[in-house]
Amino acid sequence: MALKTNSQLEKLRLSGIRRFSALAARTPGCVSLTLGEPGEDTPAPVRVEVARDLDRGLTHYPPNNGYPWLREAIARRERARGVPADVADSEGVIVTCGATEALAVALTVVLEPGDEVVIPTPAFSLYESLTTLVRGVPVALDTAPAGFQVSREALEAKVTGRTKAIVLCSPNNPTGCVLDAASLDAVACAAAEHDLFVICDDVYESLVYASSYQRFSARHPELSDRVLVAGSFSKPWAMTGWRLGWLLARPELAAQASKVHQYLVSSVPAFVQHAALRALEWDVRPMRDSYRERRDLTVAALERMGLPLVEPEGAFYAFPSVSALGLGSEEFCERAILEAGVALVPGVFFGVEGYVRLSFACDRETLEEGLARLAGFVGALRAEGGERR
Ligand SMILES: Cc1ncc(COP(=O)(O)O)c(C=O)c1O
Q1: pLDDT for 387
Q2: What are the UniProt keywords, alphabetically (predicted)?
Q3: Among protein residues, the one whose CA lies closest to atom 14 of ligand 1
């Protein structure tokens, strides 16, 4: 008899983003605008700290949740950035292997088998996969009709007696949109009325171009007892390869989260934690301003191509609609690679059809070349008569 593995894994697919990046890499000369990977390097003063720590022998087991000075610095930063003091208390900080682990821990903490998680969609596929992995049930809430916002009616239509949590990502991957006050309030009403946890994926929180931006935890401190906040060093400091992030929650939730973290990974490496501390002191505003310039360039180019989009107000993604061009998003992206040498990610990988995700995290020269190729491809499709009128 064949041995049977965990049946939940049969429901999971490997990341479609990675698959398209691999196709781009195999295509000679292709310009890839697929990955949420900053074109910059980690700042040198941050990198230097690792060599120093290795030299002084910081190579043994560190405390499970991270060194106290790093946890305190994360809590201080998050308080300064609006997270209520009872959530952003150093006791409630766990230093994790990226936001990926933080989200895995958060979902493990709140879900029992069969519990439902509402995921405003389009969404980063991690939430659906992790929910499935811990035997929860992902429930997509399509935000496209509401301009990628969450309406109370649409949310209520998805809440059932099994709903346990909602995952928020603002600024959003893949749309770059930030949730407005009405969306945050709609979620707060539902969370209060139906006793839901709110898992806030705030990895793009410091890459925001809109002055109106508010974090859910800051706007609704009265719901602190049910909020878990995931953060990351990956994006603002170009530290994707370091695998460093954090989870914040009130002490009673953090105590449960600590168990999951301890049994999954024990801790993050000892000798990256001074570097993480140094990163927190590093001013990300120049990086953000440079992304803002690339955002402006991207939006202007997409407008010239006549591809409708909701202007991204954070992160480094644009999510234009290609539905008028007569191709499904996968076919659009495959042909863009093969015929125009530019790689994007199909919207269907984020749970919606008719859109493509373009990452403008790469350097400006690559971005300009990629946009020029995309313009050529869109023009060729139109000339082919593919556009539906
Ligand atoms: C919305 C979102 N959440 C979480 C992550 C994972 O971040 P990390 O590198 O910290 O694991 C990403 C990475 O692309 C992301 O876009």
Answers
A1: 53
A2: Aminotransferase, Pyridoxal phosphate, Transferase
A3: 36
Cβ–ligand 1 contact at 240 (below 6 Å):
yes
Residue 232 beta carbon below 6 angstroms from any ligand 1 atom: yes
pLDDT tens track for 31-74: 999 988 888 899 999 999 999 999 999 999 999 999 999 999 99
Regarding the beta carbon of 224 and ligand 1, being less than 6 Å apart is answered no
| All residues at 6 or more sequence positions from 333 whose CB lies less than 8 Å from its CB, including other chains | 20, 343, 344, 345, 346, 356
Tell me, using a 6 A CB cutoff, whether residue 173 lines ligand 1: yes
Best residue for ligand 1 mutational test, from 18, 100, 237 (most atoms within 8 Å of Cβ):
100
From the candidate CATH numbers 3.40.50.2300, 3.40.50.2000, 3.30.460.30, 3.40.640.10, the one assigned to the domain spanning 46-281: 3.40.640.10
pLDDT at 389: 43
Domain edges within the chain:
7-42+284-382, 46-281
